[in-house]
Amino acid sequence: MAVKEALYDHAALVHAGPSSLYGGCTGGVPNWFFIFWTPFMVFDTVLVLLVACKSFQHYHQVPNKQWFGARLVAVLARDSFVFFLVNLMIYLFNTMTWKLAPAGLSEMASFWWLAIPPISATRLLLNLRQVYTQDREIEIELLRSRNSRIRYLR
């Protein structure tokens, strides 16, 4: 029965747009739908401005720039800015695609929004962990060297 329906509907699938192949709505997309990405861009811009202000304040308040917290804030600010740029490019790409491209391409462009920001956020967390572990490894080496000196002095 299913094979019969698939063969019967084959002509409709060939002539239909890509949205029917993806299993979504086939009614079309309104012309104003590109505005959907604007709140995301505004929210991310506000967040990056807040991070920039706070990291700038913190950087000037800390006298020792090699302190663990200062290095952590520097990495957080750097990666937050990169995360913002990547997301902004994706949002602009999606906005332009929804505005200028055919409906099938705009649907395919939206999937980048689902994949790239989590990858960028994971990179941010991995870089923070790297700073944390490097600092702890230095402390462990210092403790080992102190313990070895104490043993040799006895």
UniProtKB/TrEMBL annotation:
Species assigned in the record: Serpula lacrymans var. lacrymans (strain S7.3) (Dry rot fungus)
Protein name as annotated: Transmembrane protein
Assigned keywords, A-Z: Membrane, Transmembrane, Transmembrane helix
Stretches that traverse the bilayer: 32-52, 72-93, 108-126
